[in-house]
Amino acid sequence: MSEHVAEPRWRRLPEERPKQILDAALAVFAERGLAAARLEDIAKRAGVSKGTIYLYFANKEDLLRALAVDCADDLAKLADRIGPITADVHGFEELRAFLAEFVATYRRYGPVIRAWMEDQVADAEIDRLGVKAFTAIAARLGERMREGGVDIIDNETAAVGALMAMLERFNYALASRRLILDDDSVLDTLAHIIHRGFFGAPAR
Question: 25, 41, 60, 67: most buried by Cβ count inside 10 Å?
């Protein structure tokens, strides 16, 4: 957790974490957008009273802060788990495993990630969490591909950053258009395109 971000209220309480409230907030943020979402809607979705939400969160922004901290934590852990991405089939599978985890993370935290990418977050500290999380993943991907034998291009940081932006927009399109695609086919295609794009030859 960033030392500059105020600790969400639920982190300071002895009660069990109100996961159902956070899940409801994500669903309402996805349906209505951050600006239009109301605590009343979140309470109804969670099956609790508005007063119950106030036991854990000061307001809607506090809910977003809690979700942003969780999302950033999950993305940081994902970055740490990326293994060597080599030109062979093992590197292809490692890349595919990363993509599978990224897609799963986006499905859960899509409204938060989109808010980061589209500059919808008024709180600068929350916004910095997103920048830091995506920068960490981009850096780790570049490091792991470099270790795997990718020739360093003129601007590696920009290239891997562009890759992360492409992945975010791809997942945004899936979510916003409510497209239902076969996960295995999507992951295979993405992994193949990215692997071949960086290594110049198919792994299999």
Answer: 25
Nearest alpha-carbon partner for 62 in 44, 43, 39:
39
Rounded to two decimals, what is the model's pTM?
A: 0.80
**Model confidence pLDDT, tens digit, residues 143-163:** 888 888 876 555 566 778 788
Q: Give the separation between CA 127 and CA 174, rounded to whole angstroms.
A: 23
Q: How far apart are CA 140 and CA 47, in angstroms?
A: 40
State how far the Cα of 93 lies from the Cα of 91, in Å rounded to an integer: 5
Q: What are the angstrom distances between the C-alpha of 29 and each of 72, 120, 134?
A: 17, 12, 21
Give backbone dihedrals phi and psi of 144, rounded to 5 degrees, phi first: -70, -35
Task: Give the model confidence (pLDDT) of 80-89 as tens digits.
Answer: 999 999 989 9
Radius of gyration for the chain, computed over Cα atoms and rounded to the nearest angstrom: 19
**95-138, pLDDT tens digit by residue?**
999 999 999 999 899 888 888 877 777 777 788 888 888 888 88
Grade residue 1 by pLDDT with cuts at 50, 70 and 90: very low
Q: What b/e sequence results for 77-105 when a residue is b if at least 16 CB atoms lie within 10 Å of its CB, and e otherwise?
A: ebbeebeebbbeeebbbbbbbbbbbbbeb
CA distance 168 to 164: 6
